Amino acid sequence: MSTKGYAFDNASEQAVSHHDALADLLDGSTRELIGELTELDGKRCLEVAAGAGSIAAWLAERAAEVVATDIAPQHIPARARLTVRRHDIVVDEPPGLFDLVHARLLLGHLPGREEALRRLVAAVADGGVLLVGEFAPAPGNFVTYAPEEATADVLTRYLAAHTAALVAAGYDLAWPQRAPAAFVAAGLAEVAFRVRGGSWRGGGPGCRLLRASIPQLRPALLAQGLTEADQGAAIEALGDPRVIVNGFHFIQVSGRAAGRRGAA
User: Fold this and answer.
1) What number of other Cβ atoms are within 10 A of residue 178's Cβ?
2) Which InterPro entries does the record associate with it (predicted)?
């Protein structure tokens, strides 16, 4: 995935914590939906922007072949039937045809998301599935409960700065809602989406993800007016199990290809 417009870095000190939190937060729903969409036995799978490779490793235990790509693939583990490649979906063509193509928390960040989607669609073999997952802000107030008004205030200001920093880096907040129509326009059939949301408690996977993101976004958050002291207070609050916030919605969009040759 192209680093232009992408706010997070696999080389950062927080990358492991970031990926661990993502896996704890999202892998269950991702695995569940993949299981509903396709049988994996004997199939060829492509995981794009694989991060630490938790889904790629899970796929490799079940599918015939898995290719996991990232522009910085150093965190992807070695596994039987798993091939790791350095690859940028914005500028590089996919490495063949696959029965399942999956990308999570990728397209919304990319300035070239339409071209990246075209490449993802082109990688899906006849009858195969494309599945992407994206975060979208939840409606309503971010802070559901905080033990002190000052804690609620700093968390509210943090989320505003976090969102503004991602938008300034190129994140498209409307992309998750547009994705189903983009799938249809790209020629995919059986397009559907699933939305998951709910509360995140301090110290839980969602809040751990936000805590890991703050040091990575430090300069951008400062540019949005969130001081060093504010950032430290937000990190502390997000680790407090008394805190409850309205977590991001996770939107998974799927579509099926038809009229193409099969995977190699």
Assistant:
1) 14
2) SAM-dependent_MTases_sf
